[in-house]
Every structure is written in structure tokens, then in C-alpha cells.
Amino acid sequence: MFDQNIIAKLQQISGKDQVLTDTADLICYSYDATQKQYRPDVVVHPGSVEEVSQIMQLANETKTPVFPRGAGTGFTGGSVPIAGGIVLGLTRLDKILEIDEENLVATIEPGVVTEDFQKTVEKVGLFYPPDPASLKVSTMGGNVAECAGGPRCVKYGVTKDYIIGLEIVTPTGDIIKTGGPTMKGVVGYDLTKLICGSEGTLAVITKIIVKLLPKPEAKKTMLVLFDSIDGAAQAVSAIIRGKIIPTTLEFLDARTLECVRNATDLDVPDAAHAVLLIEVDGDREFLDKQVQKISQIVQPLGVVETRIAETPAESEALWQIRRSISASLRQVNPDKFNEDICVPRSKVPDMIRKIEQIADKYQIPIVNFGHAGDGNIHVNIMIDGKIPGEEEKAEKAIVEVFEGALELGGTMSGEHGVGIMKAPFISLELSDSVVDYMKTIKRALDPNNILNPGKIFPSDR
């Protein structure tokens, strides 16, 4: 039975209406996009950094686990409360506090929705590039905790490249600031980068200082269909060697295209076995030249067809092929294991072939798409969980996918993080000494292991 005194103190800190204990409410905060469920004992929504500090002090004194949570869109179980305890919902902290147009800096709270932030800064001619697929729902605090990526990362980088300062609450309740609004700063350790990508295990983020860019004047979209994944991958390297860094370089493999054909009325030629969705941005006068140059570069590499958008509506139509994937996958099988390996971009064809061999070995469909520009492959293992043995086959396939990526000099997670889903496999990629070094940091900052326990390191579960 959970200590009712803790619930009473949480109510004193944040108010009774911000503390949830009903079963229906607890279920809502028990899972993320993985659908793995662990029910918390209580959910609290603090309204200020002072409240977060008091909650963490209480949790540390009573050794109660705390699980910070944004919108719960993660794919690795990073926010699920696997040890019960307190879910710390941060969605009330949702203010854009300042947009400094002179210094190209914004200060925001963690509960700000990513797309809302992007649209707000774009109204004043500024630009925040990271664009995870969940941007319409996901919060900036969650993006920082997971170091989120997205299609535009090939040109602009990931979340950590834009976070220059934080206000955080430590596991013991201290409120500290890291970094600041300046573009340079090398006093002491870079705690900002340490927290970014730490998956909520080291601190609770309560304020974020974000670096912005001038908004590009225009963008242009093109869809190139290839007769093989090798041609598409060679095209990626050739484009970048040609001194063009597109905003996005998305790819779809043959299995993905088959899903799109079967589930939609989108026109995809039968001869196409791979697709690159390419977008460039910048000064309007240079975009047509860039698109023409890209067309010339890729033409000898097995191009079946090239489509170039001339209007925003045509651009949206091209993106519709990419956006139709998630819905079309359910036509293959009802259940999905979604992994996000990353390999050197020249190794994408080798990795796709490895995955095809794994799919044949276990007789389960595996559909691949992702960010070709940085080698980030979203591997979707599709099964029917009601069929005995299917889930076990999927789990074996996942291990072989991870091993294949590592053999090619890659990583088992490009942008989703580790959480609980990849924790059992972390020793495949990191040596014991590296893991021990990380755990030393965790123990030093969170001596009672109350903040998001059980994540990243399997032995902590």
C-alpha cells in the first residue's frame, strides 16, 4: 500500500486537483508508445520549479521513485513508471517565456509542444530545426531528455545542438542552472550536454534555453524513385559529395513501398524498389539550381522517375507518400516492434540486406524506412502477437538487427534512446568500463536512485 502521507504532502505542494490517484487516471500515465504498462501509485502535475524542487526533496527523503513525463510519445519506455511511485507530469509548465530576436535565443518551459514552439518562432522569422515525427504532440522537455532527431537532422543536427542552457532540479531537490544564453561558454563541465539525452535519469528539466536560426526563405521538395536500394544509397553520398546538404534525405525500401501500394491509392511505379524524398531550403534563387544539380547527380544511379514539386500543395502530395507509411504498416500485421538503428550512410544497403536475411530466417515481415542522410534506419518488425511464438521470433530478430548494425560500425539507437526496451542489449554496444563510468555519474547525482530508476542500465531494474 502506497504511503498516504506522501500523497497528502504532494497535495499540499501542488494542490489536490493536481494530484491524481483514481485507477482510470493512473492507467493513462502507465504507458508510452511502446504500450508497455506499469501503473504508478500517484500522478502529480507541478506548476512551478519550486514545486518540482519540493516534490524531489520529498521523494528523496522517502526514497520514492519519480518518473518525469512529458507527452508520453517515446518508443523505448523511457517515461513508464516501472517501479510504481510518482509520475511527475510536466505539461503544466508550458510557457514560451521569451523570444530574443536580437540574439536568436528563446527561453521556454518543458511542457511546450514542439510544433507550437516551431510555429511561434517562425512567425517572427526564426527557425527551430529539430522535427521528430511526434512533433505535433511531443514536448520540448521530452525532446531534450531523449535528444530527439527527425528528418531535418542531416543538415541541421539534433536537439542537443540547439540547447545552450537549462534550469534543472536535481534528484535531491536542488535548483541549478547550466549553460546560458551566450553562444560560447566553457566554465567547468558541460552539464547542459550531460542532461540532454540522459532520459530523465539525472535531473528534472524545468526551463530550456534554445538557440534559433534565421528562417530559410524557401524550400523545394523532390521525390526520386530508384530501381534498387543500392542506387538510392549511392545517391545520398553522391549528393553530399556534390557539396549539397539537403534539409531532408528520407528513404523508403522495397518492402515499405509495397505497403504503400497496397494500402493507398498513391501512384508508385512497380519498377521502383527504393525512394528518396529530398528537400532543400535556403535562398529562393538558388533552390532550382540545387534541385537541377541533384537530378543530374542521381540520374546515372538507376532512377525510375523524378517528381519535383512546384507548389506547396505539390510538396505536400510528395510528403504524403512518407506520411502514409505508419497507417499502411498495419496492413502487414497488427503488431509492431519499432527500432531505430543508425549506420554510416554508405552502409545502408549492406544493412538493408542483413535485415532482409533476418526477415527470411525468421519468416516475419520487416519494413525499413528512415533518414538516409545520416544512416538512421527505422526497422519495423511486423507480427501478429496472437500467433504463438511470433513475439519470441521478433525478439530474436531484434538482437540480430542490433548485432548487424554494430558490425557495420553503427549503433542500436539513433534517436529513440535506451529506456527499458533496449536496456537488456546495452552490453552489445558499450563495454563494461563505459557502463560503469556512466553508472558512477548516476550514483553521484542520484545516490538513492529515485529518478527514473530502471532505465538505460538493466542491472538497476
Key words describing this protein structure:
Alpha-Beta Plaits, 4 domains, Uridine Diphospho-n-acetylenolpyruvylglucosamine Reductase, domain 2, 461 residues, alpha+beta, 18 strands, 16 helices
Helix amount, in percent? 25-40%
Tally the helices: 16
Shape call:
globular
Most strands sheet: 7 strands, antiparallel
Strand order of the largest sheet: 15-12-14-13-17-18-16
- In terms of DSSP E residues, the strand content is 15-25%
Report low-confidence residues grouped into runs of 5 or more.
none
Please indicate the count of domains. Answer: 4
Find the CATH topology of the largest domain. Answer: Uridine Diphospho-n-acetylenolpyruvylglucosamine Reductase, domain 3
Question: CATH first level of the largest domain: which class?
Answer: Alpha Beta
Average pLDDT works out at: 95
> How many strands?
18
Q: Which structural class do the helices and strands define? A: alpha+beta
**CATH architecture descriptor of the largest domain:** 2-Layer Sandwich
Question: Can you summarize this structure?
Answer:
Helix content is 35%, strand content 21%.
